[in-house]
Amino acid sequence: MKKQASDMSRRQLLKALAIGSAAGAVATVSGQAMAAAPQATNEPKPQDGYRETEHVRSYYDTLRNK
Q1: 54 — phi, psi (to 5°)?
Q2: How many domains does the chain have?
Q3: Which structural domain, as residue segments, surrounds residue 3?
Q4: At the N or C end, where does the chain have fewer CB atoms within 10 A?
C-alpha cells in the first residue's frame, strides 16, 4: 500500500482550521468581556462607617472631664 501525502496534509489543514477558529472565538468572547468590565476610578467611595459628629465629640468631652 502506498500512502498519499495529500491526505496527511489535508488532515493537518483541517486540524489547523478547527484550532484557529476555536482560538478566534475565544479571543472574540474575551475581548467582549474585557470591554464590558467596569473601569476602575480614582473617585473616593462614600464611607458608611464611623463618623465623629458633634454629639459624639460632646460625649468624648464628658469622658475626659471625669
Answers
A1: -65, -45
A2: 1
A3: 1-35
A4: N
